[in-house]
Write a structure and sequence with these properties.
Mean pLDDT: 82
Shape: elongated
Bound molecules: uridine-5'-diphosphate, magnesium ion
Strand order of the largest sheet: 7-5-6-4-1-2-3-8
CATH topology of the largest domain: Spore Coat Polysaccharide Biosynthesis Protein SpsA, Chain A
Number of strands: 8
Low-confidence stretches: none
CATH class of the largest domain: Alpha Beta
Structural class: alpha/beta
Strand content: 15-25%
Radius of gyration: 25 Å
Largest sheet: 8 strands, mixed
Number of helices: 10
CATH architecture of the largest domain: Alpha-Beta Complex
Order of helices and strands: EHEHEHEHEHEHHEHHHE
Helix content: 40-55%
Length: about 300
């Protein structure tokens, strides 16, 4: 019998743990598979870890990992994948915005022989206008950077053991899971789902943290901004040549006193471009520095190991 591991990153989700476990058990039981639910407590400040322990004590299918602090959802996903023993792994939110019924659909696709099954959003669920707009532009940039259509992508996906091992073997620390699962390739299918409303609790993302997340992911998949600098440089150079010729012509025809405006404009233009370019380079340097430190993606403080469900 195949084993399927469900990975549920959880951050301050005390009200959702039990509900998620029950709903998933209800849909998986009739499927004739063995399963494990891997809850990853991402340094929650509420009772999430205690809930996970309670549920794990009652149900041998449930295992858990607890981080020493909040390391972020990507780290939680990676930890879950590393602990999972299944022949395939499903990653989903534990707030039940990813419908458990879709897991069964994914499972069927996997049984048909697909190695990666992507959950794509049919609708994005409730969100504010600004949020939608920002998310829209982020996905446009990401799609261009990764050459993969990301506009409906989600973190909800099933991966075969092969794909999981491939992702785990990548050395980078700032992984963007949503894009990596397509980057690894393999035989891929998609399954549509409607983003449900959150069952309890509130979203863990602020606009600021989402913006940071967007920049981080764009730069971890693309060095295009570095190329912008080169492009800017070329444009500035052309401009400088034109201006230079103009200045020389003026000089030789004896009309060189005027032109302060040009000087000021040039200084402003070049100054701003230099600063912008340096900023982008600095950003990448910071990222290189981060990768260089080669710190672990997460630290585990406690673990509930499976009792061979
Ligand atoms: N999450 C996490 N670590 C974090 C933030 C979120 O593990 O630092 C988990 C959270 O518990 C949930 C999932 O990631 O299971 C999605 O988070 P959320 O529902 O807040 O995001 P949204 O659905 O609003 O995009
Ligand atoms: Mg959610």
């Amino acid at each position: 019998m195949p084993t399927i591991s469900i990975i549920l990153p959880s951050y301050n989700e005390e009200e959702n743990i039990r509900r998620a476990a029950e709903r998933l058990t209800a849909v998986l039981r009739p499927e004739g598979v063995t399963w494990e639910l891997v809850f990853v407590n991402d340094g929650s400040k509420d009772e999430t870890w205690n809930r996970i322990r309670e549920v794990a004590a009652e149900d041998p299918h449930v295992t858990g990992v607890s981080f020493s602090r909040n390391f972020g959802k990507e780290a939680a996903i990676m930890a879950g994948l590393a602990c999972a023993k299944g022949d395939c792994c499903v990653v989903m939110d534990c707030d039940l915005q990813h419908p458990p019924e879709t897991v069964v659909e994914m499972l069927h696709k996997w049984q048909e022989g697909y190695e990666v099954v992507e959950g794509v959003k049919r609708s994005r669920g409730k969100e504010s206008k600004l949020h939608g707009l920002m998310a829209g532009s982020f996905y446009k940039i990401m799609s261009a950077a990764t050459k993969i259509d990301m506009s409906r992508a989600s973190d909800f996906k099933l991966m075969d053991r092969k794909a999981v091992n491939a992702i785990l073997s990548l050395p980078e620390k700032n992984a963007f899971f949503r894009a990596l699962s397509s980057w690894v390739g393999f035989k891929t299918a998609t399954v549509e789902f409607d983003v449900r409303d959150r069952e309890a609790g509130t979203s863990k993302w602020s606009s600021l943290s989402l913006t940071r997340y967007a920049f981080r992911n764009i730069s971890s998949f693309s060095s295009a901004p570095l190329q912008f600098v080169t492009a800017f440089g070329i444009i500035t150079l052309l401009l400088a040549v034109v201006m230079g010729i103009q200045t020389l012509v003026k000089y030789f025809s004896g009309k060189a006193v005027e032109g302060f405006t040009t000087v000021i404009l040039l200084i402003l233009l070049i100054g701003s471009m230099l600063m912008l370019s340096l900023g982008i380079i600095g950003y990448y340097l910071a990222r290189i520095y981060e990768e260089m430190k080669n710190r672990p993606r997460y630290l585990i403080s406690e673990m509930i190991s499976s009792r061979d469900a």
